[in-house]
Structures are given as C-alpha cells and as structure tokens.
Amino acid sequence: MELQLNTESKILLNGRENSKPLPIDLVMEILSRLPVKSIGRCLCVSKLWASILRLPYFTTLFATRSSVRPHMLLAYGEKGQVLFFSSPQLKNPNENASLTANYLSRVPYGGSSFHISDPVHGLVCLTYIDKEILKEHIICNPSTGQTLTLPKVKTTMVGVRSIFKLVSFLGYVSIDKQFKVLSMEWNSDHYILGPQHQILTLGTQKLEWRLTKCCMPHSFCPKGICINGVLYYRAFYAYTGISVIVCFDFKSEEFSYIEVVKTFETLISDGPLINYNGKLGSLIFEGHPWGDKARSFELLVIGDLEKQEWSTHKYMLPPTWKNVVGEGMLGFAGFFGTNTIVLSRHSYVIYYNIEKNTIVKVGIQGVEAFKCFDCSIFLDHVEGLKLVQEF
C-alpha cells in the first residue's frame, strides 16, 4: 500500500528523529485492533495520527477487524437516558459459562419514551417520543456515545384529524458505503401507513428528508430486519387484508412486496423475522410466545424471494425448557449462526440450539441493577468509526 505522506510523516511516528521509523502499514495494523474509544483518543495524539486514522484504507481495515469479533449490544433506558453496554457473544455456551457487560456510554433524551433500531455497522437510530408524538431522531454510536440529531420530519398528511406517528429504520448501502434513514407515517388509530414516506442520506452536505412513494397503503409491524441493504417487515394490505412482507431497498429507495402463501400466513403474521445465513426467515412459538408455557416452534425460511421457495421445520422444545427460562416473557435477541436462538431477559440470555435440542442460560454480570429498566439486547453488533471520524 502506498500512502501520500510528507517527509516528516515518513521519518517517525514515535517522536524521535534518531530512531528507526515505524512503518505506516504496521501502525495501522496495530491501531485497527483497538476499540473505538481508543481510536477516538488516538485522533488527538497528533495531526499525523489523525490523518492516518481518517484514511479510507484504515476505515476499511478497522471494519474488517471488527466484523470478526461481533458482540452483543445491551441498551437500558429509564429516566431520560439510554445506557449502552457490550458483552462477548458466545459461540458454544455451556452451563458454567458467564458473561461480563462492559459499559460503553450513556445518551440523554428529552422524551417520555424511546425506540431503538437494530444496530447497523456500528450505529443505531434512536427515536424519542414525548406524549405519543415524535420528538426527534438521533443517530448514535453506542461505543462512544456520540450522536447526530437529524432534522425534524414534517408530516405530509394534512387535513386529517387522526393522530399520525412515525416509525423509522436505519439502513446501510455497502456498495456506496452510505447510511440512510427511512421514516414512515402511520395512522395510530388504524395502524395504516400512508402512501408517501421520507428518506434521509447521512453524510451529505445538507441533511434533508425527501419523499419516496409506496404503491400500496398497508398496516404494519414496527419491528423490521435489514439483510444486505434491504429492509423487511410484516404487514397487511390495507383494503384486502392479504398478508405480505414489505421490502424496501435502501439503494434504489423502492418498495416491493412478497405475498405470503396461505400455508405460512400465521407464521409470518405472528413470528419475528430473522436473518438465517443471509436469507429471510421467521420464527413462531406454539403456546405462550417466548415464555415458560411454550412447547414447540417452527422455523420458516425463504430461499428465493421471486420464486417463493419456502421451507419450514418444526422443533419440540426440551423438557427442561420451563425450568430454565422461568416465569414470564422473554425478549428475542436474535438468531445466531444456523442453529441457535438467543432469548433475553434483563441480566441473562438463553441459548437454544435447535440441532442439539439443548438450552443454556447464561448470566450477564454488571447489569443486575437494571431490572426495572427498559431493556433491548441485540446480536452481532460490530463497532464502527462513524461519528468518531464524522460523516
């Protein structure tokens, strides 16, 4: 790799002109293994270090390193603040395993509640709500606590008495290396999304929302999933009630739909969508969802979106399920690899291996005090340099 550096840059990186210079390539290899917070401190060492750490090559190198060490991201919210923690992501947990949560940052907010999107390349989108009305969107890097407040979304629905709200998703276009935010208006009385939505591209000279059309009004589920730059979420056509999966391509900024065949309508309408090795899938538990009364569940995977090639598998839960999960509801953290469902409850996670039919409960040390907080746990969080290096 050939870098355009001045004479001073080539001479030294350790401050001593009479010492042997340290190759720039080696410096970047070392720094790429540091956590994001440490990178932020290194930016302040000197102008030379700052210029090196802002090179596109280093950004790509850091992203490559981070992708092989994904973590769980834990978000706890209460009393006007969101606290972020990270924890290792176990590949082969056992009964003696334990995890330790590492504090990352805290982000204050002025609303009465908040919604957090799934992490995308190290960033999350926080939507703050005050008295059921959207207050603001904030893009946040949980690793550093740095935030970017987005312009307010202006409603396009005029002359309508019903209360309209907004739901937003963060996406990433890998080819263009762009982050985008999709914001959609919906009628809170009928849960119907309107025909027009707005999208914003981060990193542009002027941050502004622009309209994008959706060809069919539909009811929706606000929980979606992004796979390879495409957002998927469950919905129903507003006028026919037909079950569909809505697809929004962040690159083309266009909507499309997958009509769900009758056989799988219940699975799609009730179960969370998952990323099954790059393929879209869904899970549904029989009995009380994600709780001690569950008895079995089905895994539905679509192999080809255009040909509608669906496959489904049913799994019976082990006899120890109730004793391990305890009473109450569990949160769905994600699907790990090709065989592990991860469920969560405040200070512990449950790994269920569908191939071995084994269940393991793993405690998370350091967050036991947050039992009364709103809790969200996400898998496969990868640290990113955005907001550290700015857009």
TrEMBL record:
Pfam families: F-box (PF00646), FBA_3 (PF08268)
Matches recorded under InterPro entries: F-box-assoc_dom_typ3, F-box-assoc_interact_dom, F-box-like_dom_sf, F-box_dom
Signal sequence extent: none
Protein name per Swiss-Prot or TrEMBL: F-box domain-containing protein
SMART domains xrefs: FBOX (SM00256)
Domain F-box: 22-62
Domain of life assignment: Eukaryota
